[in-house]
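A favour, since you know our structure tokens better than I do. It will help me judge whether the discrete encoding reads sensibly. The space below this message is yours for that.
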Amino acid sequence: MTILSAERLRELDTVLGPEQRNQLLSALATQAAEARGTLRGHRNGGDDRVLRRDVHRLKGAAQIVGADDLIEALRAIEQCQPGGVSEKLFDAADAQLSALIDATSLLGAR
């Protein structure tokens, strides 16, 4: 299970420094929390184009920190036919978003 890639975090430390890395993680945690609400809204129907846009945007942010399990959950949603995203896929993405929020908190992101 890869919530956050240790290698990517070391690279971010090298490139950004610990303080900016933590700011990035904090921003990602905020985005993940917002995404949980957004995905809940998509469960109740809505525009598939908007769902795909939101999922794609979040997947890009997850790639920065190597959140591989979240990336896979989001990729599964992206690959569904319009209107075909199951509760199981939403639940998997939600669980990964929650794990990401917890992990960033443990790393000291505020």
Q: What stands out?
A: The longest helix spans residues 18-43.
